[in-house]
Amino acid sequence: MDAIPPDHFLALSRLDGLLGSSESVYDTSTLAAHDFDVDNRTGFMPPQAPPSRLQTEWEAWELALDHAIAEGLQLGEKPGITEAEMSRSESWRKGVRELPVIPISGMIRSETHLRRAHLVLAWIMHFYIHSLPPRVPVVVPAPITIPLFQICTQLQLPPVLTYADTVLYNWTLKTPSSRPTPALDNLQSHTLFTGTNDEQIFYLTSARMELRGVEALELMRATMDEAFVGDDIAMRRITTFLGRLATVIDDLRTLLATVRDGCDPTAFYTAIRPWFRGADSDPNKRTWAFEGLDSDPSWTYPSELSGPSAGQSSLIHALDMFLGVAEFSHAPGLTGASPTKTDTTQKSPFLERMQLYMPRHHRNFLNHLAANPRPLRAIVAGAEDAKLLGAYNSAVGALKRLRDYHITIVTSYIIQPARRAAAMQAEAEGLATEEPLRGTGGTELAKFLKAVRDRTAAAIIES
């Protein structure tokens, strides 16, 4: 981090006075350091707009993505899809299969270019798979498989579209600005499957929440600094920080509500969401085959392939860990096993599994936060301080309200449209279906969201 706020220096000076300069202390100053790729202005999003194009050497990938968007490729499962639309899709897929296998050696030293390459290849792959007719086997061609797996090895990411590809690294400014922080109303998403405003608003809602969450990250860091001092002044400051954190979380809920202003639930469910699906949530239970996977003996077939999900937001994970909500992560309903996972990996809680889809520096940030030897919840529980307890419970209550509203949004945008679609299909086919609705991360959606909400409520400390 380039600049450290005055309060941070004050906390460190008080630590020096208590411990002496020879004592080592837990370094909370790195909570927003460049080591974790967390910026003091933009949080988990990059401080400048991500590159919109790779260098000439990889232009063929960019052109393939451009072509998919220009052709307006349609979902293979689209009702009433025309022969012309299917022909355009197959012509584009043929062009992808005929691409050369382009080496990635020239970008290995550039994290920024690797991220862009992951984004471009993952979008191409999803266009390729989801434009296929629904009963056609999925075989990702070698010109995509080989460089994508090479890039994933470098980035320690799975070969599938992620939240980072659709939100964190998929934005630009509407108009150039010299502001150190992007204005929430000056963002636009760079790449879209449908080209619709509905899809744009869906991504931007999350991006704006990420930017508003920057203050929450700073409040976490300031709180951790004060916790290491532990005197009465520190407890009063932590109380103030937690009160402010509750306000920030309520602001996140307000921003989440803005998705309703431009993203229609039916359009989202029928035309946008299907592009996100990973193999874990393929309605036809198809296995994704990767041509060229055997070209490197170190590669193995992924144990899971979940699509982008709000569960991959490092900001929400950080709030859970900081407030001690993560301690309740093994509650019933939070395992979210996917159908392609082995017996040993099925036991991992869903939210832990989603961390595998985060940029690796952000995973390290969360691990650093989780390793804090003085957890906030334990401090509050042992302090016998009514104001501190009230402030903590207020912050946890705000997080529960955010999750309550998230359930409302998911009900409107996914659960209700899914029930209508299932009822129409059952009526048309004379069948009944009891198949549980799964999220793009492979979970039983309603059960999972309610379990997360209940877990959050359980973190409130009784006075």
UniProtKB/TrEMBL annotation:
<protein>
    <submittedName>
        <fullName>Indoleamine 2,3-dioxygenase</fullName>
    </submittedName>
</protein>
<dbReference type="GO" id="GO:0020037">
    <property type="term" value="F:heme binding"/>
</dbReference>
<dbReference type="GO" id="GO:0034354">
    <property type="term" value="P:'de novo' NAD+ biosynthetic process from L-tryptophan"/>
</dbReference>
<dbReference type="InterPro" id="IPR000898">
    <property type="entry name" value="Indolamine_dOase"/>
</dbReference>
<dbReference type="InterPro" id="IPR037217">
    <property type="entry name" value="Trp/Indoleamine_2_3_dOase-like"/>
</dbReference>
<keyword id="KW-0479">Metal-binding</keyword>
<comment type="similarity">
    <text>Belongs to the indoleamine 2,3-dioxygenase family.</text>
</comment>
<dbReference type="GO" id="GO:0033754">
    <property type="term" value="F:indoleamine 2,3-dioxygenase activity"/>
</dbReference>
<keyword id="KW-0349">Heme</keyword>
<dbReference type="GO" id="GO:0005737">
    <property type="term" value="C:cytoplasm"/>
</dbReference>
<keyword id="KW-0408">Iron</keyword>
<dbReference type="GO" id="GO:0019441">
    <property type="term" value="P:L-tryptophan catabolic process to kynurenine"/>
</dbReference>
<dbReference type="Pfam" id="PF01231">
    <property type="entry name" value="IDO"/>
</dbReference>
<feature type="binding site" description="proximal binding residue">
    <location>
        <position position="406"/>
    </location>
    <ligand>
        <name>heme b</name>
    </ligand>
</feature>
<dbReference type="GO" id="GO:0046872">
    <property type="term" value="F:metal ion binding"/>
</dbReference>
